[in-house]
User: What shape does this take?
Amino acid sequence: MNRQLGRIGAMVLVLFGALFVNLNVITLLQADELANHPANRRVIIREYAIERGPIVVGEEAIARSVPTEGGQYRYLRTYPEPELYAHITGYYSIVLQRSGLERALNEELTGRTTEVVAQNLGELLGGAQRPGNAVELTIDRRAQEAARDALAGREGAVVAIDPTTGAVLASYANPSFDPNPLSSHDTREINEAWAPLRDDPDRPLVDRATGELYPPGSAFKVIVAAAALEAGDDPSRTFPNEATFDVPQTTQNISNAGRVRCGEGDEVTLQTGFRRSCNTVFARLGLELGDDVLAAQAEAFGFNRTPPLELPVAASRIPLDQDVPATAQSAIGQRDVQASVLHMAMVAATVANGGQLLRPHLVQTVRGPDGAILRGPDIGRWEEPPADGRPVSPRTAQQLRSLMIDAVTGPGATGGSAAIEGIEGGGKTGTAQTAPGARPVAWFIGFAGDDVAVAVAVPDADGGGGAIAAPVARAVMTAAIRD
Assistant: This one.
C-alpha cells in the first residue's frame, strides 16, 4: 500500500511540476508573443483604437484610417485608389489580418517602434491613443499609372527602379483587386469579397511583380553576356552564323526565331548576336562558359537568394550542376531558369549604374505624427554572399550598357519599340516559351539614361517581347524620366 501511495504521490508531483513549468513558460517566455498574436481579439480591438498612420505616395495617402461612429472599432482602413496600389498596400482586416505593407510595416504604422513606452503610459493614464507613423513610399505616381495604362488590362507586371539608389518607382501587377471590402468592419462583407478573389483562376491576389517567377527567355542573355565579358571575351568576338545549333548529347537542337540566320555572312559577332537575340550564338557561348560559370554569374546578380525588399519576393532561380543540354537551354533563359520581374529590373539597374547591385526599397521615410523623420531609405549595395554588391566590373558594365543601347537603337534591333527620342536608352527583349502549344512570356528589361531601369513581363502574350513588352517599358520609362 505504501509503495502504491508513493507512486501516486510521485505522479502528482510530476504533474504539478509540469504545470508549474508550463505556467512559467507561458508567463515569462510566451507572454509577449501571445499578447501580440494577430488572432488575439484584444490585440485587434487595441490596434483599431489607434489612428493607423497613412501610407503616402507623393503628398497623397493611398491607405488611411478614418474615424467611425460607435462600435468597438474606432477606425476604418480605406484605400482611395485601390486597384492601382493593392499589391503594395495590401489590406488590413479584422478577419484576414494583414497583407502587403500593412503587414510588413505594422509596427511603424501603429507607432510601436519608437514610442512604446510613451504609448503604454498614455494607455495607463487613460489618455488618447497616440496616432501611428506615416510611411512615405518611393513610388512615382506617374510611372505607376503609366504601368497600369500601358498593360491595358493584360495579365502582366512592371517594376521600375531608380538605378542610382535602388528606389522602386513603380510596381504594378495585373489583375489587381480592391482591398476596401476586405478591410471592412462587416465580417459578412469581408467573407463575400474574399471567396471570389481566392477562387478566381486569374489569381488577382498574386503580386506578379514580386511574387511570381517566369522563364526570362532572351532577357537572361544580359547575364550570359556579362559572364562572357568577365571571362575576357569582347563584343567583337565572332561565332558561326547558323540558323540552328546542334546541341551535344540531345536531339533537341536550338534555333533562332523563325529558324533564320543572324544576318548575312558566315560569322556573326557577339554584339550582333545580342542585338538580334540569336539563340544559336548564346547556346554555343553558354556551353563554352560552362554551367558553373553561368550559375556563378547569375548568383552574383542575386539569383538563388531573396532580394531584401519590404514586401515578400520570390527568389529567382538557376539550377546548379546542369548537364550539357540543360546548360544550352539555360543560356537562352529557358529550361529551369526562373526570374521575378523585380529581379530583372534590378539586373537592368545594375548595368545602368556601372555595375552595382543595389538593395531595392519601397520606403522613403517613416515620419512621426509631429512630422519628424524617424527612418530614412535603406540605400546601399546588396552585399550578401556570394557577391559583394558588384556582380560585374565597371568595364563590363559599360560594355553591357553599350550592347543594350545597340539592342534598342542598332540595325535590326529587337528592342526598337522601347526607344525614347532624345534619351540614351538600352534594353533587351525576351520571348520565353513555357509549354508546347502555349503562348510565350513577353519580356523587356532596360533603362533610360540614369533616371530609370525597368522590367516588364507579359505572360500568355500574342507576340514577342519587342512587340508587346517593349512599348509598355517605353511608356513607363517616359513617365519616370526626371524633368
Observations:
- DSSP finds 17 helices and 17 strands in the chain.
- Residues 114-121, 123-127 have pLDDT under 50 and may be disordered.
- The domain at 217-363+379-480 is CATH 3.40.710.10 (Beta-lactamase).
